[in-house]
Amino acid sequence: MWYLLALASGFLAAVVAILTKLYLKNINPFFITFLFSGITVIFLFLVDLSTKKINCNQITCLTFKEWLPIVIAGLINGLSFCCYLGALKYGKAAGAVAIDRLGILFVVILSVFFLEEPLSIKSVAGALMMILGAVLLSFN
Questions:
Q1: What is the pLDDT confidence band of residue 139, given thresholds at 50, 70 and 90?
Q2: Taking residues 101-105, what's their average pLDDT?
Q3: CB 138 within 8 A of CB 99
Q4: pTM of model > 0.85
Q5: What is the Cα–Cα distance from 89 to 85, expressed in whole angstroms?
Q6: Torsion of CA 8, 131, 139, 80, to 10 degrees
Q7: Which residues are CB-contacts of 86 (< 8 A; sequence separation ≥ 6)?
Q8: Which of 77, 83, 89 is nearest to 20 (CA)?
Q9: Is residue 86 scored above 70 in pLDDT?
Q10: Domain boundaries, the chain
Q11: Which of 86, 88, 101, 109 is nearest to 133 (CA)?
């Protein structure tokens, strides 16, 4: 089941990339990120509200130790999205998205060091193929 959700996520990200490239050429990437984030907050709030998953006690019960990584990750996510939209604005869509998706490589590397996940020959080979694919898509 998780792979279907991941595939849907990839497809939806592709749709966002194409829409952004087509219709938002002359808009500042930071402003687009601001608008996307606001719409996302409203959408997720309505989803949580409609599925009765939101619980205000969850928010007030979070400790500083729990809030800190949430805030840091939110800031990094916003910066990442600004960089992504800037790459889309100034580069080719396929190339910008291919390079952006190399973030998977950083996850593989960081997971070895911080999560102590094993690094196999298969994952190294896959990472090298991704790099080659991104280069081929980006610099043709």
A1: confident
A2: 86
A3: yes
A4: no
A5: 6
A6: 60
A7: 29
A8: 89
A9: yes
A10: 2-91, 102-140
A11: 101
